[in-house]
Amino acid sequence: MRAVVLLPILACLSAGARGKVFSRCELARLLQRGGLDGFMGYSLDNWICLAFYGSSFDAGAVTENSDGSSDYGVFQINSRRWCTDHRSHTLDLCRTRCLDLLTADLTDDINCVKKVVMDWEGMGAWMAWRDHCKGRDLSHWLASCNL
Prior knowledge:
Helices cover 37% and strands 5% of the residues. Residues 1-17 have low confidence and may be disordered. It is mainly alpha-helical.
């Protein structure tokens, strides 16, 4: 009987532990390897700035929005257009489950953000980028990372 009660609790705890909080330079190296530096004209420091203001580099971040959608992962990818969360209506343009964006493996995240920036808004699709990164000197985001 005790095992029946503990299993759901353990499942919840392991789901919460899925996300990883990256260091700035660790994330920069992963994104560089994933081909984001210069992708669609956006330098690596733009991606790091977005990830900081979007999720504080937390791959497990989920933000509930007033329209019923949610934002997932280190880049806060929105479920309304880009991933499927089985709770809200979605276009699922990245063809991925939103839960897959909450892991330390950023392959799905990188593939999806490439699709997002190819859309007409580019990085302007993210309010965090527009408000904190666009048009600013972002060189400090990669300082001391030895990339």
